[in-house]
Design brief:
Elements: H1 7-19, H2 43-49, H3 55-66, E1 69-74, E2 77-82, H4 85-93, H5 105-113, H6 125-139, H7 145-163, E3 171-172, H8 173-190, H9 192-222, H10 228-233, H11 237-263, H12 270-276, H13 281-312, H14 314-326, H15 331-343, E4 349-352, E5 358-360, E6 363-365, E7 370-374, H16 375-379, H17 422-439, E8 440-444, E9 452-455, E10 457-460, E11 465-470
Parallel strand pairs: 2-7
Antiparallel strand pairs: 1-2, 3-11, 4-7, 5-6, 8-11, 9-10
Helix pairs in contact: 7-8, 7-9, 7-17, 8-9, 8-13, 9-11, 11-13, 13-15, 13-17
């Protein structure tokens, strides 16, 4: 038994450990874990609570019960869930030269079954690193004014469609924003000037592609409740629907690329820049098609959440309008989008498989363990954000003191495998929000409260019923 009179002998050692931030790790088995069934963990509890569509809220509740770290089974896969921003930085710092993240099982099965090679999201190891470095130089570094020009011209198409729409009728927001997202990607691919030349010819393809991409994500979500391998093995209807929508979307995207590659050879867009650095056509198609599919949901639903929040907070909408009159590139505009992404990150979880053992929150995590970072939880935690449920763009004003931990909200991720389309997304969101707010008063007439549900990404639980009334000068 320890005798406290001996404490004086241990005191210098303990003080030295504290000063040098020495951490004593505990074993993986000691990580808190909710009660659950063998192998399945708490999957049954999740289904009873509402299913995969509320996974982010379900795990948020678990964090409140068990703390910033716990382990649980997501179906047959054991994972460590993490909601501490400082510890997340440790994970990213230790992600290695070739970071690995989780990929949808249904997509992996489709790719293998059809011998289909995908883009950056699915690439690994040196292949990923090689092409990621190339895309970093094109999309994240240097003079990116060509992206601004591309986003500007595609955004004007959306603004004109809204202007031509009756002010007394509800706009099909979901449909319009999907089309806008596809228009932006097309403009980025060929450049602003070439987009003006080709947009009318390929518009029917872009509209069809937008509808098909929507179905891909809808059908992917329907495969979340059952193992995709079983659905494919028994050729269930939901697998057939998924397979059909993926096949059509890939064919449409390939057809679109073929048309613009043959007939519209601009010198300012992404396609030209990739050819310029000698990326072969097959790899270009792989990367671009994934960019098209990935951009469909993410930016369109982020834009939907921005419009929803501004329509619910008319004083903020007016403050933003006033700021934009003074400065078209107002920091309040950027803060409005950052605050939207804090509350509604389209990807509420980030994942990594650390290549070596690491210590997180005092626990030893073995290499290749799935770590799920709960940015929905960290972004709504009162420890980092005062009144976290409030929509308050001013909290991001430099020197406000409201949040000293910017890493508590990581909608685009961080590190080597962060979102490659971040600059495109930020530019098109800022430009579009600015033009909408300057031209229209946005009102919402949904009677019921809108919830955020998870269907691959965070989206409104019901179609948004928005009315756009022209601003009177």
């Amino acid at each position: 038994m320890f005798n406290f009179k001996h404490f004086k002998y241990f005191k210098p050692f303990l003080l030295e450990c504290v000063e040098n931030n020495v951490r004593f790790s505990s074993s993986f088995e000691n990580i808190p874990s909710p009660r659950g069934l063998p192998l399945l963990g708490t999957t049954l509890s999740l289904i009873l609570a509402g299913g995969p569509s509320i996974l982010h809220k379900y795990m948020d509740k678990r964090h409140k019960e068990l703390g910033p770290i716990f382990k649980d089974n997501v179906g047959p896969v054991q994972a460590v869930f993490l909601a501490d921003p400082d510890e997340m930085m440790t994970v990213f710092a230790k992600e290695g030269k070739h970071p690995k993240h989780i990929k949808p099982e249904s997509w992996l099965i489709y790719n293998e079954k059809h011998n289909y090679s995908r883009g950056l999201f699915f690439m690994d190891d040196e292949e990923w690193r090689h092409y990621r470095n190339i895309m970093n130089k094109i999309l994240l570094k240097g003079n990116l004014s060509w992206i601004e020009d591309s986003c500007d011209i595609a955004t004007n198409v959306l603004i004109n469609r809204i202007k031509n729409h009756s002010e007394t009728e509800f706009l099909n927001v979901e449909h319009e924003l999907y089309k806008w997202s596809m228009d932006v990607i097309l403009a980025v691919l060929v450049g602003a000037k070439t987009y003006q030349q080709c947009s009318k010819e390929v518009d029917h393809l872009v509209k069809k592609l937008a509808r098909t991409v929507y179905l891909v994500f809808e059908n992917t979500c329907k495969l979340q409740l059952i193992p995709a391998g079983l659905a494919e093995k028994f050729n269930l209807k939901r697998w057939k629907n998924f397979e059909c929508s993926v096949k059509e979307s890939l064919e449409l995207a390939t057809e679109l690329l073929d048309i613009i590659s043959i007939n519209y050879k601009g010198i300012e867009g992404l396609l030209y820049k990739m050819y310029e650095v000698n990326v072969d056509k097959k790899t270009i198609n792989r990367i671009i098609i994934d960019l098209i599919l990935g951009a469909g949901d993410t930016t369109s639903y982020t834009m939907a959440w921005v419009l929803y929040l501004l329509s619910k907070h008319k004083h903020i909408q007016q403050e933003l309008r006033n700021n934009l009159k003074i400065n078209p590139k107002s920091s309040y505009l950027r803060n409005t989008i950052k605050e939207t992404l804090r509350l509604y990150p389209v990807a509420p979880f980030l994942t990594r498989f650390p290549p070596e053992d690491i210590t997180i929150c005092g626990y030893n995590i073995p290499a290749q363990t799935l770590i799920v970072m709960s940015i929905y939880t960290s972004g709504r935690h009162s420890k980092y954000f005062k009144n976290p449920e409030d929509f308050n763009p001013n909290r991001w004003t430099r020197g406000s003191g409201d949040s000293s931990l910017q890493q508590a909200s990581l909608p685009f991720g961080i590190g080597a495998r962060s979102c490659i389309g971040r600059k495109i997304a930020e530019t098109q969101l800022q430009m579009t929000v600015s033009k909408i707010v300057k031209n229209f008063n946005v009102d919402i007439v949904n009677g019921d409260e809108i919830q955020d549900i998870l269907e691959m990404i965070s989206k409104p639980s019901k179609p948004l019923r928005l009315i756009f009334n022209k601003v009177l000068d």
